[in-house]
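Sample 3 of the quickstart, ligand fe (iii) ion:
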Amino acid sequence: MMETKNSKSNSTANNSENSKSGKSAMQSSQLMQLFEDELKDIYFAEKALIKAIPKMIKNATSEELVDALENHLTETEDQITRVEKIFELLGKKAVAEKCEAMTGLIKEAGEIMEACEEGAMRDAGIISAAQKVEHYEIASYGTLRQFAETLGLKEVEALLQTTLDEEKNADAKLIEVAVSAVNIDAAELEETK
Ligand code: FE
Ligand code: ZN
Ligand code: FE
Ligand code: FE
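Result:
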């Protein structure tokens, strides 16, 4: 981690010494490096989710929520394959680098599940944690897709767009589940009156 930081600041220093003509090539190689670093980060994050989502499924009660999570677990497997395909297209070995953010989000998801009573409350907690995960992924893939476009990597860009769409759909589905859960709860409250 320190090494990456040092090499980055070194290349920034070198860049400022470069002539204008060399600058754009230098910038594109730096952008490529940043792209690779972010790809390693999301590769770690997706792999961590393959382990975390089944725990959410086990803790979920609502059938709709279980379905949404199971569906997204399958998509996550495809997303990992896509990231590996991107490494291959770049001629690089697929390497995962620890994503502190996803590690933290998954840890918090565990804490929420422990703290909430099983049933509607825990489901609400799972939805909240899962949406934070999706938003992190949407930000990551949105950036990666933009970098790929800037770097002129058409095939890579298309792969990233497919995953970005899946993440956005997963987030929208979670909102749907939350809305219908709230509606059911409101109806139940009405009955007990
Ligand atoms: Fe994902
Ligand atoms: Zn996903
Ligand atoms: Fe990260
Ligand atoms: Fe996701």
